[in-house]
Amino acid sequence: GQNIDQPTEMTATEGAIVQINCTYQTSGFNGLFWYQQHAGEAPTFLSYNVLDGLEEKGRFSSFLSRSKGYSYLLLKELQMKDSASYLCAVLDSNYQLIWGAGTKLIIKP
Amino acid sequence: SAVISQKPSRDICQRGTSLTIQCQVDSQVTMMFWYRQQPGQSLTLIATANQGSEATYESGFVIDKFPISRPNLTFSTLTVSNMSPEDSSIYLCSVGVGQYYEQYFGPGTRLTVT
Prior knowledge:
The complex is a heterodimer. By secondary structure, chain A is mainly β. Chain A has strands at about 5, 10-15, 20-25, 30-35, 45-50, 55, 60-65, 70-75, 85-90, 95-100, 105-109. The model of chain A has no long low-confidence stretch (mean pLDDT about 95). Classes of the chains: A mainly beta, B mainly beta. The interface of A and B includes residues 41 and 44 of A.
């Protein structure tokens, strides 16, 4: 079967750095997405990785290791507005998006 | 990217009735998707709706319960039929566009069935 694992919840302090991990087992791989979802709102696209390595976009970076079936989203200089759920999703061999359950990130002052 | 609107934004419906949710996109797109999201949970794909073909439903979802129309490249509807309280959820449409065919989501329809 297809499976994506993320921690259910994480807590971090404003101004700090947090890493949200995602491991996956899917039928094929055509890329991995990270989405941010604030409570009561729709998910918004953050990043896409298809090759191994780190992609940096401002305060957010996303890393991929295809051989390990592993990705992480790194958030730097945390702000209160970063409190949200972060969803990992993998595009499988049929170009179907397989979604993780999401990680709820709580930022404390 | 794409700008997507949904109507209604929320509704409270009685058991046994039906509700049609509309999804409008500001540009022509081939791939549209309908999802359901229970509070605090991740997204569950209901069906993929490509213009010019019948919608493709995921396991556990059937056309009689969730009929979908896709009359053109900017519009789609999802009907939740013969509703029960278990259908209470947020329903989201999305489109696959962009450099990586990333999905962009509408604001969602919050449905409560009493």
